[in-house]
């Protein structure tokens, strides 16, 4: 598949560059095929050249609404993770999750599924036969140095919707609009789905110590005065106590608000691994290829596990992200 830059119709973004006031950095998505015979495609806004992290959020894939009969849906065979947590959040459809902790769960719209990779975990993700349209986000959270070898974990949470004016908000991580998620995170973090009625404008209190990213799913949304179109991620640095979101489209708009304190560490990210230096990645790859206990085994998945791709030859992966502040 081609990049979004080669297919501008995908974003349906009106040419209103003059409206883009300084302050909000607009990150566009690139299309990435997930692999497999029919290759479902996702729109990736994190990481990218100009930005690796928003708080500890280090990966953002947005997909759908996809007609599963056309795309084949999501079929991701068992694969490993280390040094991160995965956050699955759906708008439509259903995904069956199995991991090497023994978890067997169904990811459904409005329900948070958070898996902690820590030192090592493996999992499979397959959209169910009941799914006709698949639509959602897959997000990763980098673990800070002191917790990056944490034990495997899997948490599930169904936030109650909170009404603020013309907005309906589901806080799956952190605190917003008077709701607090009970799910534990390793760094201060915010994750919430926000649905705005036609014409709705809301001003939300946010933590000035947080940087924020708004990933727009549907409709055109103004964040702090800057227009964001579907598939775009608007970034705002720290220092704001409020955030105003306005739906400027004809129908309802939906977005996911991410936030967190600046991560303050450089990371090395390759395939499904996060480490601090090249050697961490080489070791994780070897451990997966050698079927080490580190990642465990996924039972109940019908098929082979994913082999790791080859590491680029003669290249040492360089750390990226926030420079250490000390
Ligand atoms: Mn995964």
Which characteristics define this entry?
Jelly Rolls, 5% helix, globular, disordered N terminus, 326 residues, binds manganese (II) ion, 44% strand, 27 strands, 7-stranded antiparallel sheet, mainly beta, single chain
Chain-wise SSE layout:
Elements: E1 25-27, E2 30-33, E3 41-46, E4 57-67, H1 68-71, E5 75-81, E6 84-92, E7 95-99, E8 104-107, E9 112-116, E10 121-127, E11 133-142, E12 153-157, E13 162-164, E14 167-173, E15 175-176, E16 179-180, E17 189-196, E18 201-205, E19 211-218, E20 221-223, E21 226-228, E22 233-236, E23 242-247, E24 253-260, E25 266-270, E26 273-275, H2 278-289, E27 320-321
Antiparallel strand pairs: 1-22, 2-3, 3-4, 4-11, 5-10, 6-9, 6-11, 7-8, 7-10, 9-12, 13-14, 14-17, 15-16, 17-24, 18-23, 19-22, 19-24, 20-21, 20-23, 25-26, 25-27
This protein binds manganese (II) ion.
